[in-house]
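Annex B. Sample input.
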Amino acid sequence: MRAARGVLRHQALLFGSLARWLLPRRRLPLDGQEFGYARGQGAMLFGLAFAGAVETAGMAVLLRHHPVAHTVMLVLDVYGVLFAVALHAASVVRPHLLDGELLRVRQSAQVDLPVPLADIASVRRESRATHTRADGELDLPVGAQTSVTLELARPVTHLTVLGRSREIRLVRFQADDADAVVRAVERARAALSPLPPGPVG
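Annex B, continued. Sample output.
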């Protein structure tokens, strides 16, 4: 039941993001900073959508004398095209967000991981093209690439789309401007722990 709710929520977020992509975006709080990560995947996803549209037209011709099969394939193909476009839309309208004392690391409609700045041990730019699944690690590549690595002093809980939970101590994710993410997180962390005033005298 939890898995079914998770899938339904994911679909709602995904196609809701498609609607938001076509409408003016909401304004962020004044202290919020967005960091995009969709630049490296747009061409691939739109290529998939185009291929799906071509397949839809081809299957419509092949199955024109089989109305039931044609209807089923038409629904599946149209869903596939919309799904590919919605993935990109969700990546655009759901960027990483640094707001107050929290960094929200996102990936389309699948992941929205809130990481308290106080729990970050280190942040660095680290370009990686290969990732192996390991306990306590969460990799969120875009186009098989990640460019920012967060090491955590305390684990945070990640809930998957299917409702499973994992304790995460290291996060790797992609950002279009990795240096900007690292600088912003370091500044925000420093602001949480200002240096004590020097002696008066």
